[in-house]
Amino acid sequence: MENVPNCPQCQSEYTYEDGALFVCPECAYEWTASEQADIEASETITDSNGNELADGDTVIVVKDLKVKGFKSAIKQGTKVKNIKLIIDPADGHDIDCKIDGFGAMKLKSEFVKKA
């Protein structure tokens, strides 16, 4: 069976291809292959300069970030190695990482740049 994407509306896995359209039988949503390409492209995560980020990249913090429960902030210029991306972040924090002196953290990609 060919690889048909899940429905972008309801995330149903029971979608099927009907000519040039993808169709969801659960919510009746229809979309084209070009719309699917746009959906997949929007899932990429970019840094503050628009560079695409990937798992394992090294990034640099571009502004001081206050952290709850800590007296000091994460300073601008702090290098963060071996990041992991979160594709569907619930709270907007789309990078999972460990920062020396702070431990495990989640960051927003808008506050980092690719090293």
Question: How would you portray this structure in words?
Answer:
The chain has 115 residues and is mainly beta. It folds into two domains: 43 residues, Single Sheet (N-terminal domain of TfIIb), CATH 2.20.25.10; 57 residues, Roll (SH3 type barrels). 8% of the residues lie in helices and 25% in strands. The strands form three sheets. It has a three-stranded antiparallel β-sheet with strand order 1-2-3. A three-stranded antiparallel β-sheet has the order 5-4-9, with no helix packed on it. Strand 7 and strand 8 form a beta hairpin. The longest helix is centred in the first third of the chain and has 9 residues. The radius of gyration is 19 Å and the shape is elongated. InterPro entries: YjdM, YjdM_C, YjdM_N. This is Alkylphosphonate utilization protein. Belongs to the YjdM family.
Based on the model shown, name its key terms:
elongated, SH3 type barrels, YjdM_C, 8% helix, three-stranded antiparallel β-sheet, YjdM, Alkylphosphonate utilization protein, mainly beta, N-terminal domain of TfIIb, 1 helix, YjdM_N, 115 residues, 2 domains
Topology at a glance:
Layout: E1 16-18, E2 21-23, E3 30-32, H1 33-41, E4 59-61, E5 79-80, E6 84-85, E7 95-99, E8 103-107, E9 112-114
Antiparallel strand pairs: 1-2, 2-3, 4-5, 4-9, 6-7, 7-8
